[in-house]
Automatic annotation (TrEMBL):
UniProt cross-references to SUPFAM superfamilies, sorted A to Z: GST C-terminal domain-like, Thioredoxin-like
Protein name (database record): Disulfide-bond oxidoreductase YfcG
Organism annotation: Methylobacterium crusticola
Classification via InterPro entries: Glutathione-S-Trfase_C_sf, Glutathione_S-Trfase, Glutathione_S-Trfase_N, Thioredoxin-like_sf
CDD domains in alphabetical order: GST_C_8, GST_N_GTT1_like
Amino acid sequence: MSQDRATPHQDGHTPDPDRVTLYHAPNTRSSGVLLLLEELGAPHDLHLLDTRAGENREPAYLAVNPMGKVPAIRHGEAVVTEQGAIFLYLADLFPRAGLAPPLGDPLRGPYLRWMVYYGSCFEPAVVDKARGLEPGPQAMSPYGSFGAVLDTLTAQLRRGPYLLGTRFSAADVLWGSALSWTTQFRLVPETPEIAAYVARHAARPAVGRARARDGALAG
């Protein structure tokens, strides 16, 4: 949002045009977005939803995300849903953090690949495996096979320390969060490459801050 879109409050202060509202439920997929906001140093507010009480299924939130899922963000007049889209939007919105290779950077393509690969291949593969479902015919499956997804990821991590080599990006915030909980619940095997990657993720100061915030909110 451009600066000229902001309007002064009654107290004479101009609202921050970059301020983001995160629709958040602690210890869910939206926790990854909370972590990203910490990594970006982004000004934000939290709109908490009690999913156990079904607040995410009430009309007020369904008007934000008809799927009734978190995360979702509001930035000015823009509402963004879908985890990958939110990560891409926020990392581009706060370029000073350096978590998104810009257009023209040779790493922009690989960055987009790994951001989209997460939702297109990894999550469907993990969910199917957890439910004991076969991936379906090769021509219809969005990911091919669980083994192929894991082998592709492991091969990339072997080049490490991050998905873009030596460059840490928003893709690592997304994947580090996901691999932390999928290995914790034994949905994904803890290969040496994945274990080392998860350990690097856990050591980041922003991870500690985000987990502390989530713990306090859940309590």
